[in-house]
Write a structure and sequence with these properties.
CATH architecture of the largest domain: Up-down Bundle
Structural class: mainly alpha
Strand content: 5-15%
Number of helices: 8
Shape: elongated
CATH class of the largest domain: Mainly Alpha
Largest sheet: 3 strands, mixed
CATH superfamily of the largest domain: Cation efflux protein transmembrane domain
Helix content: 55-70%
Strand order of the largest sheet: 3-4-5
Distance between the termini: 33 Å
CATH topology of the largest domain: Alpha-lytic protease prodomain-like
Oligomer: single chain
Radius of gyration: 26 Å
Number of strands: 5
Length: 311
Amino acid sequence: MHISNLHKWQHAHHFNIDAGRGEQNTRRVIVLTVGMMVIEIIAGYWSGSMALLADGWHMGTHAVALGITVFAYYYARRHADNPTYSFGTGKVGVLGGYTSAVILAVVAGLMLIESGRRLLAPVPIRFNEAIGVAVVGLAVNLVSALLLQGRPEHDHEHGVHHHDHNLRAAYLHVLADAMTSLLAIIALLAGKTLGWQWLDPVMGLAGALLIMRWAHGLLADTSRILLDRALGRETMTAIRAAVEADADNRVTDLHIWPVGAHHFAAIISVVTHYPRPPAYYKEILNSFAELEHVTVEVNHCLDEPCLKISG
């Protein structure tokens, strides 16, 4: 075969490569987050509010996580055609999501510790200044959340929803900021009007537990992909049944693993008395939209067939 014709038999491994919108919006959110972080830290020192100061540094950790998100997008796009990545860079975004989830869990842990300390040893707060800055912080976080609100892409042909774990991680970080700002406003208003200063650390504890739950969900989703956990048992059974329903085929080996957030590769070994070309078995599996890269090994069984095939 002439080498110039090889490209007809090759295909790319561009799984989960961001088209640009997710990365661009995340960059905008980083600018907003860093700007608000500086304002809150300065206001925290000026007003003597530990709540604002802590929230400012808290936003700083989220800015780092958002930076990881942008880097993951850039790296995946830059190395999409790098042959050293056997199945492309589809898992880079998933790895970015996993790393951000770890940071999210650490932030939640620090919030638990700080809230516990304030509950045991309350600090005086300049409520008016703190409330004003917290309201501005909430507005910034809501704008950031709108920018990062990732709607799942929909495959109209197969009815499959695709989720960007990298963008979801960034969204959860911003949402965590918005929630802590909202809880801070509620606690500060209650402290100012009712004298309930204890509500501030209690709200911090509640927010930390909720953020921990979000982090756990994201860790579970991304680790499943990073550890090459296969498709669900029902789908695996359906794939095997589809191949074995043809002729007297028997699937002797079946390996399916993720190469991205919603793309899977498969290696299938088939034993049959009536062997067909590998393309024939791939055609049988065309209805499974999850399978993007399929390798079929066909083994000819020379024993007496149990099932006679006409024609």
